[in-house]
Design brief:
alpha+beta; PH-domain like; 2 domains; 5-stranded mixed β-sheet; 4-stranded antiparallel β-sheet; 32% strand; elongated
Length: 168
């Protein structure tokens, strides 16, 4: 493996997603407590105890999985790697496949309808927050945008080590 030029790890901390997940977990926790432990049926037609417990523990597991996801970006002399969470495969891009690389501003909502691993008509995007991204155009015409909270560090690495990949 070659020298690491840029490295970043971003935690997934989207408040708009965390708040509903916490509320859901608390709700199923209270309902489970009332019905299973206090033996007070919830509603006119209560759900079976096992179902409440499945939803409660499922929401806890979902919250843990969601909140522990990280976007990891690494630019090396020979490759760029991007990984996001448990379910997205690690993307490895050989530098020889890169036509151009640059830093650009973007709007996750307008361009990709949110955060995470996203697609639009012309580009794949990996993002958790912010509006700065590393845009990579491949020689095959595909484009990949990787969100970054360190645009200046990424730009410096690109300028110093990959100057032949910069577009004017």
């Amino acid at each position: 493996m070659k020298k690491v030029l840029f490295e970043e790890s971003q935690k997934n901390v989207q408040i708009l997603a965390v708040v509903p997940a916490v509320i859901t977990t608390i709700l199923f926790g209270v309902l489970s407590f009332l019905q299973v432990l206090l033996h007070k049926p919830v509603g006119n037609n209560p759900a079976p105890d096992w179902l409440l417990l499945v939803f409660f523990f499922g929401s806890i597991i979902g919250f843990i999985v969601f909140s522990s996801q990280k976007l990891k970006t690494q630019i090396r002399e020979d490759e760029i790697t991007v990984s996001f969470g448990f379910f997205a495969r690690k993307k490895v891009i050989n530098i020889s496949e890169v036509k151009s690389i640059s830093i650009r501003k973007y709007d996750a909502i307008k361009e990709f309808l949110g955060w995470g691993v996203r697609f639009n008509l012309s580009e794949r995007c990996y993002t958790v927050a912010g509006s700065d991204g590393i845009e990579i155009e491949l020689v095959n015409g595909k484009r990949i945008l990787v969100g970054t909270q360190k645009p200046l560090d990424a730009d410096l690495a690109i300028l110093n080590y990959l100057p032949n990949k910069i577009i004017a």
